[in-house]
Amino acid sequence: MSVNTKKERINMIWGFGHGLWFLLPLLFLGRFFWIVILALLIGAVIRRFSFRYRQTPFYQPGMPPVQPSAIEILRQRYARGEIDATTFDQMRERLEASGEPRQQ
Question: pLDDT tens digits for the chain (104 residues)?
Fold first, then answer.
């Protein structure tokens, strides 16, 4: 019986040995990817809750909102069916006769 004195060389990581250096840039790119994603998320949260980017109302603060004129309110009530045609005509004639001031 002969004894084999030669040692069999076993490569690390199932035969890849130390040839994984080509994967090292991918590890850094993966870390960079998650840092960018985290920065974008933080930026979105800051922008969402920032006072500077809040939507402004359609009217300016300090100025009262524009109210519809009396004739416009009368037309809307007629369109909704709240008043009939004769009542609409009577009220419209009264408003036109009274010289309603124009809307500002």
Answer: 566 666 665 555 555 555 666 666 777 788 889 999 999 999 988 888 876 656 655 656 666 667 888 999 999 999 999 999 999 999 999 999 987 555 54
- Separation of alpha carbons 74 and 66, rounded Å: 16
Contacts of 70 (CB under 8 A, 6+ apart): 95, 100
The dihedral formed by the CA atoms of 81, 83, 89 and 90, expressed in degrees to the nearest 10: -170
- Name the token pair of 16: 């890849």
Query: Rounded to an integer, what distance in angstroms lies between the CA atom of residue 86 and that of residue 92?
Result: 10
Three-state DSSP at 87 gives helix
Residue with tokens 């009368």: 74
Whole-prediction pTM: 0.36
